[in-house]
Amino acid sequence: MLNPFMFKANDIRGVTEGSEPEWDEQGAYALGGAFVSVFGLAGQKIVLGRDMRLSGPRMSAAFVEAVLDAGTDVVDVGLASTDELWFASGHLGLPGVMFTASHNPGKYNGIKFCHPGARPIVPAELVTIAELATAGPAEPAEVRGTRSELDVLGAYAAHLHALVDLTGIRPLRVVADAGNGMAGHTLPAVFPGGAGAPPVEIIGLYTDPDGSFPNHPANPLEPENLVDAQAAVREHGADLALVFDGDADRCFIIDERGEVVNPSGVTALIACRELDRHAGSTVVVNNITSRSVAEVVAEHGGTTVVTKVGHTFVKAAMAEHDAVFGGEHSAHYYFREFWGADTGMLAALHVMAAAGATDAPLSELVTGFARYAASGELNSTVSDPGAVIEAVAAAFADRGETDRLDGLMVNGPDWWVNVRRSNTEPLLRLNVEARTEEQMAALRDEALAIIRTAGPQH
């Protein structure tokens, strides 16, 4: 079973639990054979990991069986965060497969693929995998592959600390909300405590990996999922908080007041650090990142490249332009020194290094990057997304420059409005930014009224 709607622009995600699953073990088996066939991996080797989702063992096992039947060896790293799997692909020089549905509810599972060195596959390759898998399982190879196990967690943590040295910072108290996701697996390795460890006290929230997500959904894009970390910062007098998504490739930052640091502000902060080390380099952002980032990058002598939303697009741009860093509004952060892949933990280390290098609170460090008022991402479910986008385009037609790089973007002199379809969910997403809070609110409300009245919702 492979529902065609589970194939997204960047990865595969579909329901595996309940009475109406969108894919099952037979579908996972078909995908394993298709993956080997599309990339010509027979007789070669891949690395595979999975997150804590309840369906992970059975779904990944079926996929592995198909890969072995196709004559390909599997290096199984077991439970892993997605960025740990990217590390394994880069460290070992192997194609990678990660079983995860990121921030989606527990009934979902999915797959993220990469080429050796954590290089992204492109959407056309994912389409080919889907077409081949839905045609049925492949014929077994004459020689079956072999499966081995490898623990890469220690090497992953050592690599991160080689990139950001925290040993000389002032002592920090940091709340870390793993959301019962894979950050609960990686945090103890990155912050082991004891002699010689960085002077960071971690106050953990929901650090037991549990695919049923018993405390709150592991989706930090939703404000209600940040509340516990915000309260813990205030309760413990912490310097900051980290809030990870389910597979821990994203990390939201909360300052010492319990206020969320806009991911564009985090992008600007890390961009400054990377440009200080690699003068004149390129920084990649997506189409709805704050204009403040490009302004900060230019002030630090760098160049900004804008791409579509989504990790495959950002990674491709990172490789094309040899960019030192990339950031998205969704709190995905990409690093040249991490094979151009996204890692929430490395971004967290950069923020801690910046905060620990001064006595000033984090809120002061990012003040200069908050140059515009942002709406945040507002989601609507509508019957005809294309028609709704055109209705917004018509309403704003004579008020700014329009581009279609990623949905509809209307650029005014000191504001912009973006409406686009989600890459991963059946939603229409609205983002607005303007110089003042009042201007942003007016544009936001106008666009949102059009979206929610232009066609029936479902």
From TrEMBL:
Keywords: Isomerase, Magnesium, Metal-binding, Phosphoprotein
InterPro entries: A-D-PHexomutase_a/b/a-I, A-D-PHexomutase_a/b/a-I/II/III, A-D-PHexomutase_a/b/a-II, A-D-PHexomutase_a/b/a-III, A-D-PHexomutase_C, A-D-PHexomutase_C_sf, Alpha-D-phosphohexomutase_SF
Domain Alpha-D-phosphohexomutase C-terminal: 377-447
Keyword ATP-binding: no
Record's signal peptide: none
Gene3D superfamilies: Alpha-D-Glucose-1,6-Bisphosphate, subunit A, domain 3 (3.40.120.10), Alpha-D-phosphohexomutase, C-terminal domain (3.30.310.50)
Domain Alpha-D-phosphohexomutase alpha/beta/alpha: 6-134, 155-258, 267-370
Family: Belongs to the phosphohexose mutase family.
Name of the protein: Phosphomannomutase/phosphoglucomutase
